[in-house]
Amino acid sequence: MESIDIDETDLRLLDALQTDAALSNLALAAQVHVSPPTCLRRVKRLWEAGLIERQVAILNADRLAPVLGHGLSAVVEISLDRQGAEMLDAFEQRISVDEAVQQCYRVSPGPDFVLIVHVADMPAYQALAQRLFTSDANVRNVKAFFSVKRAKFAKTAFSQREKVIVCSANHSIQKSCGRFGAPWSRAGRPLPGLSAFASPALTSWRCSPACRAPRSGRPAGCSW
Q1: What pLDDT is recorded for position 159?
Q2: pTM of the entire structure?
Q3: 165 in the Ramachandran plot: left (φ > 0), alpha (ψ -120 to 50) or beta?
């Protein structure tokens, strides 16, 4: 798959779409502080790059329970008898096509797989176990933990990447500016706060007058 460079605006878009993928383009653009055409173009690019796989609806299990029942969710640890690459792939392929298996993770150390499964009731779980976890599936040990209550279901959290702007001496903002995040400028043009990442291409940056760091605390290459 072709690699793609993403910036803070892209991360804000992905974060907002994980919260509510039904937002209109206008509402999404307003939320991430970009123009509607820019928002539309960026979201299209994220789709084409495969960063957005699909849009789904998260159902309210408690509201559905009177109609469909609460069902039974379980976290299942699976240890295989033989852990060769072919055996791991074969088991993964076997369980991936079963609709009762909602998530599957290869893990280490401990068990070989952790599954998240959801079935209608205990008889349905028993049928699942007989269907997937039998000895001919190379399964040595199964340990199931049945869910009593789901306390949290969260979106993917994006760690805040460190924002670094470099001056002409290649010093980071932490060293050259005592007010991290103050507006900076290049060649006299103002830039939004936290507007760049460290890059060899960024040269001749200087602090704006908003910076109150003592001049003596800045490296010699800082041109402020």
Answers
A1: 55
A2: 0.58
A3: beta
